[in-house]
Amino acid sequence: MTKLVEIKNLNVSYDEERVLENVALTISRNDFLGVIGPNGGGKTTLIKALLGLVKPERGEIIFHIPATKIGYLPQINQIDKRFPIKVIDVVRSGKTEKHPFNLFRKNQEETTHAENLLQEMGVLHLRNKAIGELSGGQMQRVFLCRSLMNNPELLILDEPDTFVDNHFESELYEKLRELNKRMAIVLVSHDVGTISYYVKTIACVNTHLHYHPSNIISTTQLASYNCPLQIITHGPIPHTVLSLHENDEQHGHNH
Ligand SMILES: Nc1ncnc2c1ncn2[C@@H]1O[C@H](COP(=O)(O)OP(=O)(O)OP(=O)(O)O)[C@@H](O)[C@H]1O
Prior knowledge:
The protein has 255 residues and is α/β, with parallel strands linked by helices. The chain has helices at 43-50, 87-92, 108-120, 136-147, 166-179, 192-198, 219-224, and strands spanning 3-14, 17-28, 32-36, 58-63, 70-73, 154-158, 184-188, 201-206, 208-212. It is 26% helix and 24% strand.
């Protein structure tokens, strides 16, 4: 399996507070890794590490691909609706190999690539709209196109389902499954139920990282990973499983 990024013995602290400790993780070609964990557990910090944005206090991060081959869809909660930029230009701005001031110079090849991505995501008809006119789901698709402009080998998404409706959420995950045929994906989500249906492996991050080599994970395993999450799912239809009370049997399901 071709390795894309390796994290070894990583410690990260902010102002003396240890956020990641002794973290090891290898991302390889065709991986589809779901990153879960409690609030403040260090998921975003792990993403920053994968993007080379945090300085390790200890350990190392080895990149086997250039930075331009890592696509990133940040957590987007809000955007100033008045921001004057067209959809097509948002997508084109994801092209980072060139000098940044080339951004708005017309380049037919890049425009065609951006249009192909918009087409793939089903939003080509919005190409000349102002970004602020779009719905949450449409905007998320456009930003996803932007993160694909460099044809990444690794795509990292931080809670892409935050402000989209349920319908778009499942569409998005289906798209990710298609994209996973041509790139590795790391997906951070609070929605353990849904992601466990799509990802191949799971990392539970709560200062320490526990790698789980499958997408099926039980509440008992989560507890042993010190990942106190309330919901989890597996099987063909996503559903929730409530965490157990102390004396419960193991198979308490809530469909
Ligand atoms: N730039 C920073 N400076 C200081 N502390 C930070 C900084 N970024 C994050 N932290 C702290 O580090 C801890 C981990 O934060 P991080 O955002 O990585 O967690 P998370 O798992 O992504 O959380 P959430 O699920 O709430 O998004 C938290 O306690 C947070 O307050």
